[in-house]
Write a structure and sequence with these properties.
alpha+beta; 47% helix; single chain; two-stranded antiparallel ribbon; Alpha-Beta Plaits
């Protein structure tokens, strides 16, 4: 994610400015029977949904990436576990640019509109989200309107420059990557809390700063083999074109 990182050199990124919008009016969670009936209605009732969090980013300062980890672990993860059986695909998206969207963390998932309302309701009710918002570190939240399914196809949130096959397959890949990233957060956080149980919000955020540093180090030291090499192996060790327009192997 950092500027000049190996990831930025290997991945073709499209800068997307996601405008924050107000959350839709939430209804009380409906019965499991109603939800199942909604899912049984067919794929047309399902689609992609976004929950977005805009993070404080003062001028002349670096993005506080540890807040992304806090949101993923303390706000999104409990809701994801509760609704995992009704979410077909999901992922995280992180970005920071000096534009209207700024530093923004997103949880993106594919499910029915009915389940999306329940997910948004639970996310919006998070005490941890309230705490970090009250502290002024999350300065805006937004979620999609669920009255209509605006992105019903698997490829609707993929990069349009990709081939149709890659657009449809990529959500499965990035879900696995997001799951690994979340597990790394939880592994390191649990280990640190054994020796220094968190109390206040600043203490929790200090732990996530350390966790972020550990994950960054893992990416730098282990990413080439654990991630890039094995991904390359799945594609038969074939070379690929990167930003410099040259072939590389891993």
């Amino acid at each position: 994610m950092g500027r000049g990182s190996l990831f930025a050199k290997l991945a073709t990124l499209t800068a997307v400015s996601l405008l924050l919008s107000g959350c839709a009016a939430f209804r009380a969670s409906e019965s499991g029977t109603a939800i199942q009936e909604d899912r049984d209605a067919g794929l047309g009732q399902e689609g992609w949904w976004y929950a977005r969090y805009r993070i404080l980013w003062p001028e002349n300062a670096e993005p506080n990436w540890s807040v992304d980890l806090y949101l993923a672990d303390r706000v999104v993860s409990p809701v994801l576990e509760k609704h995992r059986g009704r979410i077909a695909l999901w992922r995280f998206h992180r970005r920071a640019a000096r534009d209207e969207a700024g530093h923004q963390f997103s949880f993106i998932f594919f499910s029915s509109a009915r389940n999306a309302r329940d997910v948004f309701n639970d996310l919006n009710s998070s005490r941890d989200l309230q705490a970090i918002s009250d502290a002024g570190m999350v300065v805006g939240t937004g979620c999609d309107e669920t009255s209509t399914v605006g992105k019903p196809r698997l490829e609707d949130t993929s990069d349009r420059s990709w081939s149709p096959a890659v657009q449809r397959a990529w959500p499965h890949f990035i879900m696995g990557v997001s799951e690994m990233w979340l597990r790394l957060i939880q592994e390191h956080r649990a280990s640190m809390e054994k020796t220094a149980p968190p109390g206040s919000l600043p203490a929790r955020l200090a732990i996530y700063q350390q966790v972020n540093a550990k994950i960054t180090q893992s990416w730098r030291d282990e990413g080439r083999h654990a991630l890039l090499h094995h991904l390359n192996a799945l594609f038969g060790y074939e070379p690929l074109v990167v930003y410099e327009r040259k072939l590389m192997g891993f």
